[in-house]
Automatic annotation (TrEMBL):
It holds the Pfam family Collar. This is Microcystin dependent protein MdpB. Residues 7-62 form the Phage tail collar domain. InterPro entries: Phage_tail_collar_dom, Phage_tail_collar_dom_sf. It comes from Micropruina glycogenica.
Length: 170
């Protein structure tokens, strides 16, 4: 394996950080023992900048490229965002309708999704509506409950190189 750049991130299939690496779980490191890495990261991921600095915390997070692509939002290095669960509001749900069907005659061939009825000779229903349905029954309803907001995922062990080749700017 080639020597990594200091500050390089890699994901591993095993559950520990190899020698010269640290897991990306947001821990604080002493600047004095990690001057090269601190010179690259600064306090982008936390720390006081005098005695400590933070490593990236990728636990439960998806890595996202920093900067701004055409037509997309801008993201600063080290910025976090997003939520695991979202509760939609009525304004976020596209207008739509749901059909309702019913039969006034109990002799309907398929009573599924139909309203109870009587035989034609015992009809107690009128073809003309005499009442308005309850708004709670036919009005908009988003449920008000949060839903999962993550794509399918696979959790891996993200680590950062503490030692290696100091990257030069090209």
């Amino acid at each position: 394996m080639t020597e990594p750049y200091i500050g390089e991130l890699r994901c591993f299939g095993f559950n520990f950080a190899p020698s010269g690496w640290a897991q990306c779980n947001g821990q604080q490191l002493p600047i004095q023992q990690n001057t090269a890495l601190f010179s690259l990261l600064g306090t982008t991921y936390g720390g006081d900048g005098r005695t400590t600095f933070g490593l990236p915390d990728l636990r439960g997070r998806t890595a996202l490229g920093s900067g701004q692509a055409p037509g997309l939002s801008s993201y600063a290095q080290g910025e976090t965002g997003g939520v695991e669960n979202v509760t939609l509001t009525a304004q976020q749900v596209a207008p739509h309708t749901h059909p309702v069907s019913g039969a006034t005659d109990a002799t309907a061939k398929n009573p599924q999704n139909s309203l109870p009825g009587f035989t034609a000779s015992e009809s107690s229903y009128s073809a003309t509506a005499s009442v308005t349905m309850s708004a709670a029954m036919i009005g908009p309803n988003t449920g008000g409950q949060p839903h999962e907001n993550r794509s399918p995922f696979l959790a891996l062990n993200w680590c950062i190189a503490l030692t290696g080749v100091f990257p030069s700017r090209s």
